[in-house]
């Protein structure tokens, strides 16, 4: 009874992965994506839509079905072989008619079930490896979706900054036109203000065009049938950011060591372990197949002739005189060696991903809080002072334009620094396999 419950529990754990993958295709995915894309989307919404993208689901379902089919094939015993033989034995009856020997036999591999059980274990390990490979693909997809999400958020901020630049340049042009009517501005001031307005409009158009292109590409990634503009909803990684802030309050080495201890959730590491298990099962299968006794064939049948009916029993097995099965065993051993190399490579890559993402997050956070935002505040204060001096006639129009450009450049740098913090934090989450 305990063995039965353990098998049922194993099946239920596997069903947690396979059943949602099979059942999702029953949902009208394109219609669902079209309805959801019409609404402002958070990062979680974007990840969910990308995971339900129809081509991705079809591809993953194909690989899942193929792995399941290999397991079903490995579990299936071969069909028995039925043979019939009619042989002229050189005898004739009283009428001179040749006598035939009729023989019917059925052949069954006696010990094939032992090999089949090992083949099933090998195919099951291969299926587990496929399952983890699919999970790793989803992790890479989430990483790409997060990067694209924050890149699109960056261009939303840049478009707002460029629109602000257009408003500032337009107000500056109107102000100088009024000053010209009063005789306080020259034609050169008007020309400079017009050039500043044209340059601001050019920057706004370029940023809006790039934003639209990113929206179209992102919509396809999320599962839209055709490219379409989408809107994002403000979303932050507040909980994880707070957790990282608390962990970084102490020693960086201790914080990084704590992060490196959380790598068990990575599906590529679990895939490497599953590949080693598959290689071990393949080695045992190759060793089992090299034993001639497991290919023992037993045949039973009946024989009919003029002498009367009779029974036939035959046994057959290959003799290991030429082929000792060295090739399959060596190939299985090479698979294990390759799987071990992949495991070492994955472990080191995971450590590199976590360490680089952590240092990138720390560096980008310092740049944002210690460089970009203070610079933006300083540029804003400088612009305010320059505007007052320009109104008092102390500074020239060129100084005012320079101060405005400096503030806009600082705001762009702050937006990019904010993007770097968000992307590095998301990369760190994905590196941890969360």
Task: Give a brief rundown of this model.
The protein has helices at about 1-25, 30-35, 45-50, 55-75, 110-180, 185-220, 240-245, 250-260, 265-290, 325-390, 395-430; strands at about 80-90, 100-110, 295-305, 310-315. With about 425 residues, it is α+β, with helices and mostly antiparallel strands. The protein starts with a helix and ends with a helix.
Amount of helix: over 70%
Ends: how far apart?
36 Å
Note the main sheet.
4 strands, antiparallel
Shape summary? elongated
Order of SSEs, N→C?
A: HHHHEEHHHHHEEHH
Bin the strand percentage.
5-15%
The largest beta-sheet arranges its strands as 1-2-3-4
Q: Would you tell me the structural class of the helices and strands?
A: alpha+beta
List segments where confidence is low: pLDDT < 50 over at least 5 consecutive residues: 1-29
Report Rg.
37 Å
The overall average pLDDT, rounded, is: 84
**Extended strand count:** 4
Count of alpha and pi helical runs: 11
Oligomer: single chain
Relevant terms:
434 residues, alpha+beta
Written description of the protein model:
With 434 residues, the chain is α+β, with helices and mostly antiparallel strands. The protein contains eleven helices and four strands. The protein has helices spanning 2-23, 29-37, 43-51, 54-75, 112-182, 187-222, 238-247, 252-260, 267-289, 326-391, 397-431, and strands spanning 81-92, 98-109, 297-304, 310-316. Strand 1 and strand 2 form a beta hairpin. Helix 3 packs across helix 5 and helix 4 packs antiparallel against helix 5.
């Amino acid at each position: 009874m305990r063995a039965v419950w353990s098998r049922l529990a194993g099946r239920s754990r596997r069903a947690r992965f396979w059943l949602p993958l099979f059942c999702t295709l029953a949902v009208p995915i394109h219609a669902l994506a079209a309805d959801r894309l019409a609404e402002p989307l958070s990062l979680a919404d974007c990840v969910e839509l990308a995971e339900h993208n129809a081509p991705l689901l079809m591809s993953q379902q194909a690989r899942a079905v193929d792995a399941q089919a290999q397991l079903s094939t490995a579990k299936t015993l071969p069909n028995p072989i039925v043979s019939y033989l009619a042989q002229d034995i050189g005898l004739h009856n009283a009428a001179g008619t040749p006598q035939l020997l009729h023989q019917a036999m059925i052949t069954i591999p006696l010990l094939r079930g032992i090999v089949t059980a090992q083949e099933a274990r090998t195919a099951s390990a291969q299926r587990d490896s496929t399952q983890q490979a699919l999970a790793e693909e989803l992790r890479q997809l989430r990483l790409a979706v997060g990067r694209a999400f924050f890149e699109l958020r960056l261009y939303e901020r840049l478009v707002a900054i460029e629109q602000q630049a257009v408003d500032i340049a337009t107000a500056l042009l109107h102000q100088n036109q009024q000053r010209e009517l009063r005789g306080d501005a020259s034609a050169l001031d008007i020309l400079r203000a017009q050039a500043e307005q044209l340059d601001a409009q050019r920057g706004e158009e370029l940023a809006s065009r790039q934003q639209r292109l990113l929206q179209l590409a992102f919509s396809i990634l999320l599962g839209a049938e055709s490219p379409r503009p989408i809107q994002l909803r403000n979303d932050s990684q507040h909980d994880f950011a707070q957790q990282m802030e608390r962990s970084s309050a102490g020693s960086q080495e201790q914080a990084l060591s704590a992060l490196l201890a959380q790598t068990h959730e990575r599906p590529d590491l679990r895939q490497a372990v599953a590949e080693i298990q598959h290689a071990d099962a393949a080695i045992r299968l190759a060793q089992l197949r090299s034993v001639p006794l497991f290919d023992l064939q037993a045949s039973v049948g009946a024989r009919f002739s003029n002498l009367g009916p009779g029974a036939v029993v035959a046994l057959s097995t290959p003799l290991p005189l030429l082929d000792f099965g060295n090739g399959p065993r060596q190939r299985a051993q090479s698979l294990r060696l390759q799987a071990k190399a992949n495991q070492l490579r994955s472990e080191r890559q995971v450590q590199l991903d976590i360490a680089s993402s952590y240092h990138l997050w720390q560096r980008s956070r310092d740049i944002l809080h210690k460089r970009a935002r203070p610079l933006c505040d300083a540029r804003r204060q400088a612009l305010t002072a320059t505007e007052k001096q320009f109104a008092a006639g102390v500074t020239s129009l060129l100084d005012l334009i320079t101060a405005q450009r400096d503030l806009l450049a600082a705001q762009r740098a702050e937006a990019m620094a904010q993007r770097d913090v968000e992307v590095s934090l998301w990369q760190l989450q994905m590196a941890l396999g969360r």
